[in-house]
Structure to design on (129 residues):
């Protein structure tokens, strides 16, 4: 865990929400921020499914292909089973809320790059270069 960041527990009814703030903030400022977060908790997307209304032109990724570009197919890299399970869960979350959709570009294949954060959460990347 990063020692420069502290978790503040924002409890909304029975639901716990954690907000990260700088550890160097004095306690009275942390309390001030906590009260602001509690007052405005509905303005935050706490889960992927809460992120509705995103403009597709802003968040959609496309491969800019030029006529005559040759397909690039990376060799499949093995992934540790524990990482593979985390990646699968993350991809399923993205699919369930509509962030991604399956498309068959079998001539263009790139490996998923899993990054494990210090909080043990996983973030997935795909590098098409």
């Amino acid at each position: 865990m990063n020692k420069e960041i502290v978790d503040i527990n924002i409890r909304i009814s029975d639901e716990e929400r954690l907000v990260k703030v700088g550890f160097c903030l004095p306690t009275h400022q942390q309390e001030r921020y906590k009260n602001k977060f509690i007052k405005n908790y509905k303005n935050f997307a706490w889960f992927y499914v809460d992120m509705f209304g995103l403009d597709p032109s802003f968040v959609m990724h496309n491969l800019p292909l030029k006529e005559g570009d040759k397909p690039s197919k990376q060799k499949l890299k093995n992934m540790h089973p524990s990482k593979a399970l985390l990646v699968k869960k993350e991809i399923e979350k993205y699919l369930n809320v509509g962030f991604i959709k399956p498309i068959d570009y079998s001539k263009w294949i790139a490996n998923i790059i899993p990054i494990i954060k210090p909080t043990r959460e996983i973030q997935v990347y795909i590098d098409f270069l």
